[in-house]
Write a structure and sequence with these properties.
Blueprint lengths: L1 E5 L6 H12 L2 E4 H14 L7 H9 L3 E4 L2 E4 L2 E2 L7 H11 L2 H16 L5 E5 L2 H5 L5 E6 L2 H9 L9 H17 L12 E4 L5 H20 L1
Parallel strand pairs: 1-6, 1-7, 2-6, 7-8
Antiparallel strand pairs: 3-4, 4-5
Length: 220
C-alpha cells in the first residue's frame, strides 16, 4: 500500500506525510530530499546544474538513500545540508533533466519495494509518475501567502522576507510545473485538499479516512 502525497512547497507535505506514516505504522519517504541530495552532489563536484550530461554522471556516481536520519549521500546524513540556499536555488535545474529524474525515480521505487511496498511517499510527481497505482493519492494546496508564512519559519528560509519567500516559491512552482519531464500536477484521480485553513492534524485525519475507505473498498 502506497499513499502518495504531492504538492508544492509550504503546503505542509512533510508534517502531514510523517503523521500519516506514523499513524499507519509504515515507512515515510521524502522524495524531494533525494533530488536535493543529488543537487548537493552536483554543487560539491562544482558541476554546472544546467549541464545534463555532467549532472547525470555526477548523480550516477553517488549513493543516495534515506533512513530515520533523513536523506543520505554516500552514507553521510545530509538532511540539514540539502536545505541550504544553494541547493534550493539549483534543485529545480538538476531535477528537470529527464535522465536524472529517471534514475532518481528508480531509486525511490526500489526503496519502497525494500519495505514490502508499504510507505507514505511525498513529492511533486508521486501520484502521476513514481507510483501511479498508489492506493491513495492526495494533492495538497494552500494560498500563496499562507505558504510563504509557513516557509518563513523554516531553517532554509535563512531570514528571507515573506515577500521574497513567496516570490521564490512562485519561481519554483513555475519551474516544476512547466518542465517537460514529470511536471508537478495533481493526478486525475487525486483528492485535492486545501490546507490553508486546516491544522496538520485535520489534514492527517482526512487522509487517514481516505486510506480507510480504500481498504474497505478492496475488501468488498
Amino acid at each position: 500500500m502506497v499513499v502518495a502525497i504531492d504538492g508544492p512547497g509550504g503546503v505542509g507535505k512533510s508534517t502531514v506525510s510523517r503523521g500519516v506514516a506514523s499513524e499507519l505504522g509504515v515507512a515515510y519517504l521524502d522524495t524531494g530530499s533525494t533530488y536535493r541530495a543529488a543537487t548537493l552532489a552536483v554543487i560539491r563536484a562544482d558541476v554546472d546544474p544546467d549541464d545534463a550530461g555532467a549532472v547525470l554522471d555526477t548523480v550516477l556516481g553517488v549513493d543516495i538513500d534515506y533512513d530515520d536520519r533523513g536523506v543520505l549521500l554516500g552514507g553521510e546524513p545530509v538532511a540539514a545540508d540539502v536545505r541550504s540556499a544553494e541547493v534550493t536555488r539549483d534543485v529545480s535545474a538538476v531535477s528537470a533533466h529527464p535522465a536524472v529524474r529517471a534514475h532518481i525515480v528508480g531509486l525511490q521505487r526500489s526503496w519502497v519495494d525494500r519495505r514490502d511496498g508499504k510507505a507514505v511517499v511525498e513529492g511533486r510527481d508521486i501520484g502521476t509518475v513514481v507510483f501511479p497505482g498508489a492506493t491513495v493519492k492526495v494533492f495538497l494546496t494552500a494560498r500563496a501567502a499562507v505558504r510563504a508564512l509557513r516557509r518563513a519559519g523554516d531553517a532554509e528560509a535563512g531570514g528571507a522576507s515573506v515577500t521574497d519567500i513567496e516570490r521564490d516559491l512562485e519561481r519554483r512552482d513555475t519551474a516544476d510545473s512547466s518542465r517537460s519531464a514529470s511536471p508537478m500536477k495533481a493526478a486525475n484521480d487525486a483528492v485535492v485538499i486545501d490546507t490553508s485553513d486546516l491544522s496538520a492534524d485535520e489534514v492527517i485525519a482526512e487522509i487517514l479516512a481516505l486510506v480507510e475507505a480504500a481498504r474497505s473498498d478492496s475488501e468488498e
